[in-house]
Amino acid sequence: MKAWMRLDNAALIFPAIGNSRWVNTFRVSADLSETVDPELLAQAVKDLMPRFPSLYVRLGTGLFWHYLQTVDEAPEPILEYAYPLTHMGRREQKRCCFRVLYHGNRIAAEFFHVLTDGRGGEIYLKSLTARYLELRHEITVPASSEIRNCRDAPTAEERQDAFQKYSGDTPMSRREQTAYHLSGTPDTTGFMHVITGLIPTDALVRKAKEYGTTVTGFLTAVMIRTIIEMQACHVRKKKRRPVKVTVPVDLRRVFGADTLRNFSLVLNVGVDPRLADYSLEELCREYRFQTGLEVTPEKMAARIAANVLPARNRLLRLAPLFVKNIAMRGVYRRYGERKGCVNISNLGRIELPEIMQPYVKRCDFMIGVQLTYPNNCAVASCGGVTTINMIRSIRETELERRFFTALVKLGLPVAVESNDPATEKESEPCTA
Q1: Choosing a second label site near 18 at 20 to 30 A (CA), which of 8, 80, 98, 410?
Q2: What is the 3-state secondary structure (H, E, C) of 77-117?
């Protein structure tokens, strides 16, 4: 008999707001030192199916709620044929809500966000890569909190909707100023353009410490400064808006949870450039102050409550699904993406056990563009290199060009890759 489970609180919004052009997905990948064997990869995917029951599921539609139901068979790995994060339509979601891909020496997993967040995706990718290497090289990779052994049974906490457990009783207001929005010429082909910057991790950590902040804080400050400059070029001073970067917070670290489902919230960190000409040092300090004030168990519990308590309302629970979808779309339009400019999602250091290190050359993390964000940014560090993947659905490269140029001017060595250099379109010159 197939098992089913409710969507976690963060996942409820994604089926409601998704459409034929946009689905909230993300990708984690590992580049190996050798070409991937697709048959062994398929076996590794199958071997992990009992270990990750909350991931091997399909999206179902009920009268009152969407739900997740276990699939009969593990998804077959796909030879990557196009570009990262190709559209995952409802037909595919009804078969399985994640896909495994391979190309050359790369293994990638792409997830519909109803399943998990970046941290959960990272654990699955490392577990999958570990199992694949065990099959390929007849080695044994030790199990840990980072790598789940396929021979172990899943725990109840891994499948838990931690938002329900850690929600506070008093919700925090969602009100904040609307931010400046990036825009450009949409790529009508649907192609996802990716420009990647590769930086030695040690050099990036040292530079962040010079500014008294973390790598995430430093990159966020540089991004805010970059977008402030862009807005100054394209928008008259009287019409300018606050510039804020959306930064996900892994709540597992705040509450000590071990769920593999979604358990993160976002903060919009930034400044109003109409108030002052902020230096990079001041922006780093703003990041430290704003996150330090907000990332506490008490504040996060109140933010969780703002999402959890309305879903517990009896009238809403009894409303049919189409009414809930209308309500959730309205809330998302008002609060979801109007308060930030772009995401910076940093997985941090992807640590691998010593036995795996000779076989893994690099790891990447990508998040898709949002419903109204044409640009997004994801960061991961592995093997001494930090990869910054900037994805976009528009033709212009202004944000990436300005951002990576700013890092180089700060003394950081940046190697740049692109999946589509032939069709890059330069932005219009500054006219302000």
Answers
A1: 80
A2: CEECCCCCCCCCCHHHHCCCCEEEEEECCEEEEEEECCCCC
The per-residue DSSP string of 196-265 comes to EEEEEHHHHHHHHHHTTS-HHHHHHHHHHHHHHHHHHHHS-GGG---EEEEEEEEHHHHH----SS--EE
CB 240 within 8 A of CB 231: yes
Q: Which DSSP string corresponds to 365-421?
A: EEE---SS-SEEEEEEEETTEEEEEEEESBSB-HHHHHHHHHHHHTT---EEEES-G
Q: Which two tokens stand for residue 397?
A: 């490269």
**What is the rounded distance in angstroms from the CA atom of residue 248 to the CA atom of residue 336?**
13
Q: What would the pLDDT profile of 101-145 be if each residue is shown by its tens digit?
A: 999 999 999 999 999 999 999 999 999 999 999 999 999 999 998
Measure CA of the first residue to CA of the last residue in the chain; give whole Å: 64
Choose among 346, 363, 347, 339: nearest CA to 222: 346
Cβ neighbours of residue 1 under 8 Å, at least 6 residues apart? Answer: none
Catalogue all structural domains in the chain, each as residue range(s) with its CATH number: 193-296+333-423 (3.30.559.30)
Cβ contacts of 396 within 8 Å, gap of 6 or more: 184, 185, 425, 426, 427, 428
Which two three-digit tokens encode residue 312? 């517990």
Confidence of residue 421 (pLDDT cuts 50, 70, 90): low
This prediction has a pTM of 0.93
Q: Which residue has the tokens 């192609």?
A: 191
What pLDDT, in 10s, does the model give residues 332-346?
777 667 789 999 999
